[in-house]
Amino acid sequence: xxxxxxxxxxxxxxxxxxxxxxxxxxxxxxxxxxxxxxxxxxxxxxxxxxxxxxxxxxxxxxxxxxxxxxxxxxxxxxxxxxxxxxxxxxxxxxxxxxxxxxxxxxxxxxxxxxxxxxxxxxxxxxxxxxxxxxxxxxxxxxxxxxxxxxxxxxxxxxxxxxxxxxxxxxxxxxxxxxxxxxxxxxxxxxxxxxxxxxxxxxxxxxxxxxxxxxxxxxxxxxxxxxxxxxxxxxxxxxxxxxxxxxxxxxxxxxxxxxxxxxxx
Length: 264
What we know:
Blueprint: H1 15-29, H2 34-37, H3 39-57, H4 64-68, H5 75-90, H6 98-110, H7 145-161, H8 166-180, H9 187-201, H10 212-218, H11 220-232, H12 235-263
């Protein structure tokens, strides 16, 4: 049997305890009394707040109440809302056809931001410092071979190529997509949606109630720095990102408790 490619990540200092704490905090939050009677209302609020946070992390910050009122027409924010709303319906397909789902998420997130021809189509980031790994040569689709290979590797992990904690897998999905930036436009929105989709599809957060984006936004400087560290591929860089991600999950769980208290 082949070794689990992500298992060594749990041996990095402080990563396993951080993942364990995140698991405990999420389990506690998911037992909130409001979820028994008003789960749909809580889920809708989490979806709204996660989309607003994701757009803000992309550089498009808007007041939540203005978004709730429907007065914000910014296409990046609208794309984040569409992507967040689609996650429950994509959960079953994600481990079966990850590349197809990524294309769908990009189509939802980037409509009105990039050309129709670019929607759902991986393309290298023109910024050579973005970590896209442009490599040499390209496949029949025009996607550089190195980018296609890394997307295929990521898809293999999502499709059952690892048995590590969903927190670790979601962090790797998120970190890789941020490093690669495989799509034009709001690629970060796609990365954050794919990471949350991983938590949903693995059963870690089956109803999509943990708005990890709120944790990333609350610790935005750390988020940006740790994502850059992850892209280096060094043990310290990977450790930094995994610890940040676990903390963001904890914050998302705490915010779910707060939303439950407000609604319930």
